[in-house]
Queue: 3 jobs
Job 1
Amino acid sequence: MSIWEDKNTLAGKFWSNTVVEDCPIYDMHGHMGSLNTIYFKRDSASEMVAHMRRAGVKRLVFSHHHALFDANLRNAEVHKICLGYPEELRMYVAVNPHYPSHIKEDLRLFDSWRPYAVGLKILADYHRVKVSDRKYEYALSFANERRLPVLFHTWGGSSQSGYEELRKVAERYPDLIIFAGHSIYGDWDNAVKLVKESPGKVYLELTAIPGVNGVIEQLVENAGSESLLLGSDLPWFDEFQVIGGVLSSKISDEDKRNIFYRNVEKLFGKNW
Amino acid sequence: MKELFFYDPMCSVGNDFLGKRSSSTPGELLAEMDFYGIDKALVQYNNLAGAGAVYANKWIADFISSDTSDRLRGVWCLLPEQCGELPDDLFSAMSEKKICALTLDPFDHRWVAGKYSIGKIMAEAAERKIPVLMNYYNRKWEELYRFVETFPDNRLFIHDTTRHGTDRLVRPLLEYFPNVYYMLTAYWVPEGIRDLAVLYGADRLLYASCFPTYNHGSMMFALKNSGLDMASIAKIAGVNMQNLLEESWGK
Ligand SMILES: [Zn+2]
């Protein structure tokens, strides 16, 4: 009997029901809007939320592509988008190190954007500024004081967002909650090391990993499922592919529940 | 009863020389397939780029001959016709050894794939409707476009493992070349499988895992939940692949 046929397992339940009531799914890494290098058909809030509802994804935390890759859409506009979907959407305030005045203006408004604004997003490789650079100091100090999560785009071997850079940030800001987007993709041993060096502070976020053979297994075994978060990069990746990638990994159902929702509820509570 | 029949055309076996491991025996691969409910698979050599086609083709023939389940079929790798590195009667050797599809890696094996190097083989493959897996053209879109233009009568299975939405690259080929089939391996565009099936027909899409890079399960779940009707899902999961092979090799 395959994993999908065994109705006593989470995989079997999802296969027959698509949405499993006692297993909500929080997607902690999304975007919105079009982007230069990639085809997206469904990148608007309404289309993304429709896809999430179909897949049983309860909530998505996103940063808008146009706030990250274009300096003309501001985070205040993104907050307005969230207001249209109070159940499904939460935002990371996009930080662009090339516009320090924007950072200050936006963070002054952060509290008025709660509960929709839950943290910050830093995209060092694309902005070509190392995460340890002083250009992020204002934003990271702000997050550190408030113990906010910051979702960093991280990638193995990157001089801007790799292990060495993140380690510096973890040391410099002791109260910062680091969401390592893509789990320092490919540099799995150092991703695990980062978690172990900063217990309770670093979460490995799984965007682009579910379905890649054996990686979730390796991270669960070495870092523990308590430090993993689900992410899709929606509108990049299909939620079913992402959920299917976790369900099809060779880990326990308890580990899968940690990834799907328990770790998030431990951080943010059930109502966030 | 099992709900869907899955045929995986893109599975690699054996360990490559840079440390990427895969199943070494049919038993290991079948256990992996059974874990997810994959019924049948086309298998090629995981170290084809490194070890070369001559060695890989023998390795795959041995692997298939040691499979007692009859659920596995092999893929052989092409080389230029002029060098005598392939069996003289390629197609009867394939039939005898349960090799049902071809692939080619002119980039690692240093030759130019075109009419002069493999024109005769490709003409016969087209006549026999034998699938040619274009997996070594992954990410090499300009080369792939040229190849498809050169051999429009061949059944070419294409894919892309970047995980980036590849519609800008794939759709023109699906529109203009009816013999191009798209293997879904790392096609992760939200609701995208349904869009492609509506535009080009479910007959043009094939479930495929790209094991051991990806596991078999995530795309199974994505396809099952693609939003297509069950008949279309069944086609993409395995019926198309089964039919395509029967058209070339019989039942
Ligand atoms: Zn992202």
Job 2
Amino acid sequence: MDRPLLDVRDLRKHFPVGGSLFGKTRGVVKAVDGISFTIKPGETLGLVGESGCGKTTTSKLVLAAEEPTAGAIEFDGRNLAELSRADLQDYRRQVQVVFQDPYSSLSPRMRVGDIIAEPIKAHEPLSSAEVRARVSELLELVGLRPDAARLFPHEFSGGQRQRLAIARALSTKARLVVLDEPVSALDVSIRAHIITLLEELQQRLGVSYLFIAHDLAAVAHVSQQTAVMYLGKLVEVADSLALCASPLHPYTKALFAASLPSHPDEAREEIVLSGEVPSALNPPRGCSFHPRCPFVMPRCSEQEPLLCEVSPGRRVACHLYN
Amino acid sequence: MAPLLRVNDLRTHYFGFRGTRVVKAVDGISFSVEAGETFGLVGESGCGKTTTCHSIVRLLAPSAQIVGGSIELEGEDLVKKSQAEMRRIRGRRIATILQDPMASLDPLFSVYDQVAEPAYYHQSLRGQKLRQRVKELLAAVRIPSPERRMKDFPHQMSGGMRQRIVGAIAQAGGPRIIIADEPTTNLDVTIQLQYLNLLKDLQRATGVALIFVTHNLGIVAKMCDKVAVMYAGKIVEMQSVRGLFYRPRHPYTKALLDSIPKLGVKEPLYGIPGQPPDLAALPVDCSFHPRCRQAMDRCRIEEPWQHNLNGDGNVRCWLPIDEEAAGRG
Ligand SMILES: Nc1ncnc2c1ncn2[C@@H]1O[C@H](COP(=O)(O)OP(=O)(O)OP(=O)(O)O)[C@@H](O)[C@H]1O
Ligand SMILES: Nc1ncnc2c1ncn2[C@@H]1O[C@H](COP(=O)(O)OP(=O)(O)OP(=O)(O)O)[C@@H](O)[C@H]1O
Ligand code: SF4
Ligand SMILES: [Mg+2]
Ligand SMILES: [Mg+2]
């Protein structure tokens, strides 16, 4: 019964770069380099990491918008690579996305009703009256008035537009929604509404989320499991509350130290990383975090640590733990 | 002793449509900043934070006008200065760090030229001394191998390095106060921490005062000594940072504090209903009342006065504050 809805195994996406049309490429960016995770029905996996670590590439792979270089994605027990065209079409109905920027992700010339109805029309043979009824239902579900259907996106605030994007993502009864930084572009006072809405919708509909963000506190709030990504690899995967109680990987620790205090006297372990995120084009040998790691040991620059289970449900890729 | 900077009843409005639409972006705000202090200005988008900063350095959009109040820097009213006088004050006595480092950097000039300029003009450094100073400033903002990197151009630097270079430029003229308008919004969290710590270190070393504009209460908790919460062009609460976090008085401040997720805590978040008002059509009531959890009849009719809190700070709200703790201001 606890079969995962999504099962990602050793997934890789390498981009050739620097080549011209005829010339040889100069290198590859290993945007996603061997990651494995699962998402259970009705649950959320949070994915955190800094800019360029491969979060959006991961989401594109899950959305079947990019072909993986290697590895497998199984949805509901079936391997994506083996799906027929019709089944892939159905996969795209069941796996939807909400992007960061509510301003550019909704077509400005379409009425809200049509924007939300678009995926329904593409995937389901419903009459126009049925579509209209579904659109009204969806608008109510995300806390907007049904007459919003007649308006254009520019007539809504940022938070309302993000509600529209969520309504659209849920319009075809999606079972998994990829949320790529859904609140990063919103004002502080509005973020809480969207996070709460997403949590309520999950309760009501049993939908699963892949929630991507760089704010650890928000990720830990919405997700049961949190995965920490660094330079194309997962460095730690754990139950969100366990992760918050004791981060194990040095990079996770550094992210914790860097997440801002919630009041002026909150004591934080001071781990200030030196240097910047290295280029994904030329990642360091051994553990790719070793040039910035405060706990670095000789073997870290030679041997790559594997993501190993260190306690039940907790995986860490660091030589300190095995 | 007089404060370093004293803003008194400042009003800055934007005049659109030939003066028929008046946006009261800053509408009667007062605060002061002492030497070496970090003063935080928080509030949601559009509440007037940037307009406040631009008023202080007198770099307002053409449609904006300071229609009242004063801005005293070491006793001199900046509102009365000419633009020529302001040019001498900017960089030398007040410096700015903006959200987007590329907006402050000129892509056509080397890092050396840009860091050297304020030191050349405002500190009259020349030749080897100037070179030495630029090297020190870049080292202070932790640019690795500054000697070599100062020949580079902004596009050759990462986002974090660019923002640190803007920090070096801000320091170069030896200012008394730096206004930082959301300087870390575009940075990654670990880079943000580096930058915030760097600003703290520079402040300890030079005694410069900081005005820190942000919508992030975590940054306030980490950086600030005193905080003003802005809502719809007004300061609705001002307190010491501990006062604000431990005894927030204004319902807006409380709502903001309840709306942010706390690390490792799954309590439901509070979402502030509604939206901020149109600053061109403010009614004469408490501008927060339509969104307020504790609004009373009076709040819909009359604008609350600014009540002084005992010790430090003030709040604009009709809710009673414990009588002995407050006097009327
Ligand atoms: N189409 C592409 N061609 C070449 N390189 C790419 C391509 N797409 C992404 N990359 C590179 O892959 C790496 C991962 O990018 P990705 O967009 O997945 O990061 P991210 O974690 O989503 O970052 P952010 O937080 O900034 O959104 C980056 O180094 C990026 O430059
Ligand atoms: N050039 C302008 N002309 C007319 N109105 C303006 C102009 N610039 C800003 N405003 C208005 O003045 C108000 C305050 O804007 P300001 O940029 O000071 O806000 P802010 O608090 O800095 O917001 P943010 O957090 O988004 O940077 C807003 O309502 C804005 O729409
Ligand atoms: S004055 Fe009234 S409406 Fe305004 S913040 Fe206070 S309680 Fe709320
Ligand atoms: Mg991304
Ligand atoms: Mg601003």
Job 3
Amino acid sequence: MSEVLLEMKGVSVKFGGLTALSDIDYSITSRSLACIIGPNGAGKSTFLNVLTGTLRPSIGSVAFRGRDIGGLALHRISRLGIARKFQIPSVFPSLSVAENMDVARWGAAREPDETDVLEMVGLSARRDVKAADLSHGEKQWLEIGMAIAASPKLLLLDEPTAGMTSQETQATAALLHRLKRHTAIIAVEHDISFVRALDTDTLVLHQGRLFRRGPFSEIEADEAVRDVYLGRR
Amino acid sequence: MEAAVTTLLNALTLIGILSLVGLGLTISFGLMNVTNLAHGEFLTVGAYAVYFTQSFGGSYWLGLVTAPLAAAIVGCALEWLILRHLYEKPIAAILATWGASLVIQQSLELVFGLGGKPVLPPVQGALDLSVAAYPAYRILLICIAAIALGLVLVLVRRTSFGLDIRTVIQNRTMAEAVGINTRRVYAIAFAFGAGVAGLAGALVSPLTTVLPQMGVGYLANAFFVVIVGGAGSVAGLIAGSTFIGGLTSVLNYQMSPSLVQAIVLLVAILIVRVRPNGLLSTAGALR
Amino acid sequence: MKHRGRLVALAAGTCVLSIYPAFADEYHLTVLRDALLFGLFAVSLDFFWGSTGILSFGHATFFGLGGYVMTLVTMTSGLPAPSVLGLFAAVGAPAALAAIVGYFLLFGGVRGSFFTIVTLALSVIAQQLVISWSSVTGGDTGLLGVPPLALGGYEISGAMATYIVVAVTLIVVLLALRALEQSRWGKILIAIGDNEVRAAALGHNAPARLTLTFVISAAVAGFAGGLYVAIAGVVAPDLIGLLLSTEVIVWVAIGGRGTLLGPVVGAVLVQRAQQEISSMNPSLWPLILGCTFVIIVFVAPDGVMSIAERSRMLLRRRSA
Ligand SMILES: Nc1ncnc2c1ncn2[C@@H]1O[C@H](COP(=O)(O)OP(=O)(O)OP(=O)(O)O)[C@@H](O)[C@H]1O
Ligand SMILES: [Mg+2]
């Protein structure tokens, strides 16, 4: 039913002597939801950077819908249908909230209709406010909104719930489950309660390696994973 | 043979001057990340200092000492009055320093009057080098420039002040944390670069007529010396000067100075495109 | 709100320009006309600098290139419709040069201070080339006797006719660039200026957009240069050099970067001041120009007009 959307084969990323990702094999099908966890510096953001073209893998290949995207320019990859919410909110401060969303939509290869994404992320009352004047939490939501606005085929979210209240965290989890019907999602997260709420296919990265992969219930029960988080490994 | 030796010596003269002028830019542009378009004026101030000293009957040598001091003082004033406030605003710094450059030029004209000023060299005549005769003063210039660059290298690599500079440049907040007064280090480093440019001005002054606008002619070249060589290192500075000075001297032998200037700058731009981090960088083109 | 204010300002400006000939003698009309031509040049710089935040320190290269190309075309005998051809060339040549420079620099990732310095060098190169290629360009002295504009066998000369051509051109260009800035294109440029990597990650080809903006800007500058030489009748190296490149920056900075209309006002005011001051003492002007650069940076970083805007806001806050 669902085809393979993204396939990474033997991907490694090195920064000088440091290996940030090492020999990752991974694939995800369309309309699915995956979650990446791992301690600080495990390579999670690097993982996303490889997918968006911000970084080029030192070794290995990344294919999106059967097409090799290694070394493709950032905007080209985006136009294939990969959108991303950055770890540090980086909205456009000089533009209004609505204009930020417009710029996100206009970048898509086939421009999506103006759906009310702002409603979804709870910013419709703030549409004419300059993004510079938003609170940190609102910027987070705007980031998420912009990533959704382009109706991507693959949605990458780097720590979407950082700085959110537990209620908002639950709302985000619910939102992702809804979005999963249209798009594949990979979310990087530290917040275990969020990951639990997602309750989905989970990857554990540790020192650049794919340490475990499985449903969250299994991962949660895994002693070795706990050791990694507690720094015992 | 004779032509080759002359061209080589011409090149060395130019390389010496460009290295000295470029040093201040390596510090400000390369290390402090601020674009100072008034840098050429430090050279001009140095040249005027020599003229001023001689007009009171002072010797060239006295001028050679006052020139870097005068330029350093002007540099200090520029840093304190203007640049200090603009380290975080790159475009504002560009505009303000260009304005400062015009003000300095015009002030020199108001103080010293219109027209070019002559400076007498300390030694006259030519030195017979068996294959070619070459002006004695230029040989002297090459020697002084080489010594000055050597001293700069020792200062940066071997003294505690050099260490301070390098620490601040690598990480400003970290340097502050270990108790270095980064503000003062910036000011001193900047004034130091200005002083060395002033020395360059003193050295070129007997070779040309001293004019308020003379520094502007060196500005673009000096920037490309720094950019082509790779901003921020003494080795890069010398590589850049050798490249620009050498190319200019070789071309000068065949065509008009305007055309040479145009060609040299064009080639420099090409190099910046191919090697954005400079000739000496190992990282290569970034994409 | 702010946009409406600017439209009102543009309408007011149009009124002033259309009434002015009724009150001014021929001399003053030509003075304003020349100032407006430089105003058009300032608009071209503002279109790039204002919407991308990247400063070109060598924009006179494009203005001067337009001027020289116009001169060479119109002074070639035997061409049909030389003025039209000339203006096309005066737009095309700078646009082509900007495309090359843009491809080279902007696609190469050259931004910020590096871009500024390379464009500064470009202006120096252009001036040196013009001076050393004297058989074609007339060298240091330039070329005299550039033929006036002629359209369909009809010669446009005389203060009134040329004034009208310049004023109408200026208003049309202003309206067109304003529309462009307010369109999707302008919004995306602002986004790129805010955060280029982010805009690229959203699918926008930043280098291509920046380059095209640079090309449009250079084309307008070249057009202004072409008009200028045809109306002034002379072309000289100072139209392509570093000094003009920096003066235009002052006009834009004083008028207010990113406002399009502001730079026209800036150009007119500064040139007026320049004439007054130079007639008192010719060597005073560069000094004042230099001080102006410094003062703008510290006192009115958003242009002189913004001071009025700021004081109005202050007043409103006080009365509220
Ligand atoms: N551009 C870079 N240059 C050098 N090293 C880098 C770079 N980006 C990341 N690293 C290093 O690679 C490793 C992985 O970083 P990454 O940002 O992927 O971690 P992360 O899992 O996202 O951590 P966090 O939870 O803190 O966001 C870290 O050791 C980091 O210091
Ligand atoms: Mg991270």
